[in-house]
Amino acid sequence: MADRTVAEIIERDQSELLKEWIRRQKEDLSSRQDVSDAELQTDSRNLLAALRETIKSDAQTDIHSSEWARVRDLLADLSRRRVLQGFAPSQTATFVLSLKQPLFDRLVATVGSNMKVLTEQIWFVTALLDKLALFTTEVFQKTREELISRQQQEMMELSTPVVELWHGILALPLIGTLDSNRTQVVMQNLLEAIVSKEADIAIIDITGVPTVDTLVAQHLLKTVAAARLMGAECIISGIRPQIAQTIIHLGVDLGNVITKATLADAFKIALRTRKLTVTSM
Amino acid sequence: MDKIPILRLGRFLLVTIQVDMHDRLALALQDDLTSQIVSTRAQGVLIDISALDIIDSFIGRMLANIANMARILDAETVVVGMQPSVAITLVELGLSLPGVRTALNVDRGMQLLRLSRASEDSDFDRRPIP
Q1: Which of A240, B30, B39, B48 has the fewest beta carbons under 10 Å from its own?
Q2: Beta strands in chain B (DSSP E)
């Protein structure tokens, strides 16, 4: 049985293999100081043991089968940890791939005289380790994507608060660039707040919006139109001088939307509309 | 066949749309409403659409039409109670109902009508028509 040879080698030369493997990993990771030897040692030993057990049990090289579950779990766990530590995907894959050389050396020493068996064995090891390395990259990528989408979600929620300035007057301080997705969230939040707070005036403050192009302007106008359909008047405030210039240069028609330079001015207008005044005590 | 009730509230008419609108119903509503405006000499029309979850371009246009017809008959139209999701859909469809006034709920709509009619309620208007 061809596969047995590899398992035997791992069993026989376990400590030697481990030493050499770790030495190679360290070469690759020399730029990073934050990986402890103990961690590398544990990870490597666990994976080697799992590999040996799995190869010994005559498992096929389809690493997605149930026999490989233990190896897969170990690698997935390692990959996930490394994403959080800020490793590159190649560094994670190298963790598996650097096992090749020590294994090949051992194979040559053991069955070197028989070319056919040697080729067969080397092919088996290569195919297997490549698959495992790709698997770590996959998990790495997936973990990172999850991270990104979670952060996106959080940013989305963070960046669209609706503030009640006064009874019936809402403020919506926008921060960051407006794209279609965010406009959707902003619109929804604003409209729901208009219903729940029974507001009739909403101030959209764009001080925190870095640039206003035709698309952003269109999104703003859409929000204003939607609020108007709900019976609330919108005031756009926080228009910086450059933005006023860009809006005119782009030929954007803000139409009959009330615009003010500062939130304070907008608030004043809002108070006046509601027939409220501020007096000094 | 369904019929949309038109309730008289003082000088104003209240229309509450609670069923799915279709062509025939919309036309019937336009008929009923215009004749009611004339017969009751109503000064304002409140259209409550808070029960509608979906508004398509057809109903959007119908609302605009009713508002225009009412204006010709010297009655102001206020559409009230639009759901947030409906407002978003209408805006995405490019229907922002330009000639139509809107309010959050019936109460607010009534206030709006009273306010805008208050200025015109001079004694001149109150004189009975001979």
Answers
A1: B39
A2: 6-9, 12-16, 44-48, 76-80, 101-103
What pLDDT is attached to residue A99?
87
Among A35, A14, A17, smallest CA distance to A26 is for A35
Residues A98/A125, Cβ–Cβ less than 8 Å: no
Non-local (6+) Cβ contacts of A32 within 8 A are: A87, A91
H/E stretch holding B64: helix B57-72
More confident: A31 or A262: A262
Instruction: Tell me the chain A residues in contact with residue B108 when contact means C-beta distances shorter than 8 Å.
Output: 198, 200, 231
Mean per-residue pLDDT for B75-103? 88
Q: The whole model's pTM is what?
A: 0.64
Locus of tokens 């791992």: A10
Residue of chain A with shortest Cα separation from B48: A230
In angstroms, the CA B31 to CA A59 distance is 79
In chain B, residues with a C-beta closer than 8 Å to the C-beta of A198 are 104-105, 108
How many angstroms away from the CA of A222 is the closest CA of chain B?
6
Sequence-separated (6 or more) residues with CB below 8 Å from residue A234: A201, A202, A203, A204, A223, A224, A227, A228, A257, A258
* Mutation site for B-interface testing, chosen from A172, A183, A184, A230 by largest number of B Cβ within 10 Å: A230
DSSP state of B49: -
Helix axes A115-158, A100-111, angle to 10 degrees: 170
Q: What is the ipTM, given to two decimal places?
A: 0.74
* DSSP conformation letters of chain A: -HHHHHHHHHHHTHHHHHHHHHHHHHHHTTT-----HHHHHHHHHHHHHHHHHHHHTT--S-TTSGGGHHHHHHHHHHHHHHHHHT--HHHHHHHHHTTHHHHHHHHHHHHTT-HHHHHHHHHHHHHHHHHHHHHHHHHHHHHHHHHHHHHHHHHHHHT---EEEETTEEEEEEES---HHHHHHHHHHHHHHHHHHT-SEEEEEEEE-----HHHHHHHHHHHHHHHHTT-EEEEE---HHHHHHHHHHT---TT-EE-SSHHHHHHHHHHHTT------
A229 with B103: Cβ contact below 8 A: no
